[in-house]
Amino acid sequence: MKLLASTVLAALLALPAFSDTIPITLDIVNADGAPDGFSRSMVTANGTYPGPLITASKGDTLVVTVNNLLDDPTMRLSTSLDFDGILVDTGNSFDEGSSFVTTCPITPNASYTYVVPLVNNQTGTFWYHSQLSVQYVDGLRGALIVYDPDDPLKDLYDVDDENTIWQVGDWWHNSTLPMLAGYVATGIVPVSDSGTFNGVGRFNGGPEVPFFVVDVVQGTRYRFRIINTSARNVFTMSVDSHNMTIIETDGMPTSPMAVNSLDLLAGQRYSVVVEANQPVANYWINAPYVGGSPARNLNQNATLSRAILRYQGAPEEDPTSPMSLGPADEELNALVEANLRPLVASPAPEADINITLSLDVTAGKAQWNVNNVSYLAPEVPTLVKILDGANSTDDFNVTENTFILPANKIVQVIFPPSEDDEEHPFHLHGNNFWLIKSNSSDEINTDNPIKRDVAGVGSTGTIIRFSTANPGPWFFHCHIFWHLQAGLATVMASGLNETRAEVHPTQAWTELCPSYDALSPDLQ
Ligand SMILES: *[C@@H]1O[C@H](CO)[C@@H](O)[C@H](O)[C@H]1NC(C)=O
Ligand SMILES: *[C@@H]1O[C@H](CO)[C@@H](O)[C@H](O)[C@H]1NC(C)=O
Ligand SMILES: *[C@@H]1O[C@H](CO)[C@@H](O)[C@H](O)[C@H]1NC(C)=O
Ligand SMILES: *[C@@H]1O[C@H](CO)[C@@H](O)[C@H](O)[C@H]1NC(C)=O
Ligand SMILES: *[C@@H]1O[C@H](CO)[C@@H](O)[C@H](O)[C@H]1NC(C)=O
Ligand SMILES: *[C@@H]1O[C@H](CO)[C@@H](O)[C@H](O)[C@H]1NC(C)=O
Ligand SMILES: *[C@@H]1O[C@H](CO)[C@@H](O)[C@H](O)[C@H]1NC(C)=O
Ligand SMILES: *[C@@H]1O[C@H](CO)[C@@H](O)[C@H](O)[C@H]1NC(C)=O
Ligand SMILES: *[C@@H]1O[C@H](CO)[C@@H](O)[C@H](O)[C@H]1NC(C)=O
Ligand SMILES: *[C@@H]1O[C@H](CO)[C@@H](O)[C@H](O)[C@H]1NC(C)=O
Ligand SMILES: *[C@@H]1O[C@H](CO)[C@@H](O)[C@H](O)[C@H]1NC(C)=O
Ligand SMILES: *[C@@H]1O[C@H](CO)[C@@H](O)[C@H](O)[C@H]1NC(C)=O
Ligand SMILES: [Cu+2]
């Protein structure tokens, strides 16, 4: 404990003087809960689903102490936290939380402190979740907001606070261990029981859990920050009788664009401005989802995935209008991802290196492949191997699907059109990318593409470019965690020498792997 405190202090002293340190403690505990009315044991941060909100400001440093108090053997007992979408400097890549890529998991009864300086003036809507196997499906997910005191779009809204965050996620009645075993045995991805909006939802035949209520005052403009914390489902958001003006895409300030329906893949985030400009009443916020055949889980009813937008002065009751799946009373004006533009144009530089990634599934098995390789997490994390001197593809097992790239280059990743009809939300850790060809369009846009960190890969093909100016072993994977667990992942390892030069991990980090490896599998 003394050792841990002194290494954290040393890390803090190394920070620039202007940055505020945000100390956060998260107790990772098993807790009973019934988000959709079905009671179960969950893996949580501080006993709640979603976990407590974390907030910071531009340039702050997150100092997140995780106390692993898990004790329910029906779920994984170790844990690890990823701060999804946060740009992480090479020097802090060891605190980025990806199990077996940049770290080993935190063992039960142990504590670990992640130190993550917020770099590049990054602001926006992010989230944290377990990045150990599919553990976040058991509940360990929460919002992480980085506010911008100088937001260039602040004139567009009046309210942006802890009450304007919408977390939509799929929910499951079973724990992940039997579900994963079922997936491995059959090749059929588990189908969620319900969808939750800020931690509450309903399933067919279940109790009438009160829908989440979003309170608004007529004449006020709200910045709602929508986060898709799904492990599988795609949600389509709309608010009856109201438009949504998108102003942020995965942390990127976005040229304002009005829509009335918005699809989010797992891991994606948007901020939208909604003006409470309608008569005082209750309105449905529709959040239907798709994720596997509902016939495989009769609990599932996407119509029940919704919340209420309640104007001050309206009666405390459900809206009187029907529960629709989309905007009920307006012509559909759905988001087309390819039409998103960054607020400040950022042309995609010419690519120095091309990589083609072809995705396919092995029929009838829980096995996804990228270029014919199914990712298998190594015992020794990628970063540990690099620090120990790994310097070529031969230093990694084929199943680590690790691409070695030079520093300070532009890499283009081409995903050819896939035959599979499901869209795979590919997520790059530690960095964001220029989305020069969205799956939503046939056009290639290198002039002013949106930059984001999760983009769908599907039937029309997707092309992204990213810079390796921030070297490190960055996980690049499908955010449908069932697919990730079945191998749909790669590691983009850039600048191995630069990584060795810049990464100076703490003693506490160095001890994570020996502690984890010493555990019997049932405690891991
Ligand atoms: C989580 O719970 C711990 C222990 O009660 C508390 O100290 C901490 O502030 C809580 N964290 C957050 C983010 O609310
Ligand atoms: C964690 O601590 C509790 C209480 O001391 C103990 O019962 C449990 O066995 C410990 N778990 C592990 C994995 O050591
Ligand atoms: C962050 O913003 C400050 C003030 O606007 C600017 O001076 C600095 O160059 C920015 N840093 C980066 C990395 O963009
Ligand atoms: C969880 O899955 C196991 C194995 O398929 C099954 O026996 C059990 O009934 C399931 N429990 C729930 C609550 O769905
Ligand atoms: C969240 O992502 C999942 C998986 O990609 C998707 O099925 C679901 O519709 C998304 N939710 C929203 C609100 O877009
Ligand atoms: C939504 O936007 C459309 C197109 O700009 C406009 O025609 C419509 O009146 C708007 N609806 C509301 C409720 O503001
Ligand atoms: C889903 O819920 C809606 C609203 O309660 C209901 O009308 C519909 O029949 C349900 N669907 C199924 C398949 O049960
Ligand atoms: C990458 O691929 C594109 C499209 O096939 C091609 O035009 C370009 O020249 C390639 N760039 C490099 C550096 O190989
Ligand atoms: C995958 O393997 C098949 C059969 O061996 C081969 O034809 C194909 O070219 C391989 N694809 C890739 C992307 O390596
Ligand atoms: C790194 O490369 C050098 C020269 O190519 C080689 O001699 C050495 O064995 C490599 N290191 C490892 C860990 O493989
Ligand atoms: C290395 O890869 C092979 C298949 O290429 C696999 O069978 C083996 O389990 C892997 N070993 C480790 C330690 O990951
Ligand atoms: C990395 O460093 C080693 C030893 O200093 C050197 O031999 C090698 O050329 C460097 N590799 C690159 C890609 O710069
Ligand atoms: Cu996928």
TrEMBL record:
Keywords: Copper, Disulfide bond, Glycoprotein, Metal-binding, Oxidoreductase, Signal. Its EC number is 1.10.3.2. The keyword Oxidoreductase applies. Residues 1-19 form the signal peptide. Residues 34-150, 163-314, 376-493 form the Plastocyanin-like domain. GO terms for molecular function: copper ion binding; hydroquinone:oxygen oxidoreductase activity. It comes from the Eukaryota. InterPro entries: Cu-oxidase-like_N (IPR011707), Cu-oxidase_2nd (IPR001117), Cu-oxidase_C (IPR011706), Cu-oxidase_fam (IPR045087), Cu_oxidase_CS (IPR033138), Cu_oxidase_Cu_BS (IPR002355), Cupredoxin (IPR008972). Belongs to the multicopper oxidase family. This is Laccase 9. The gene is Lcc9.
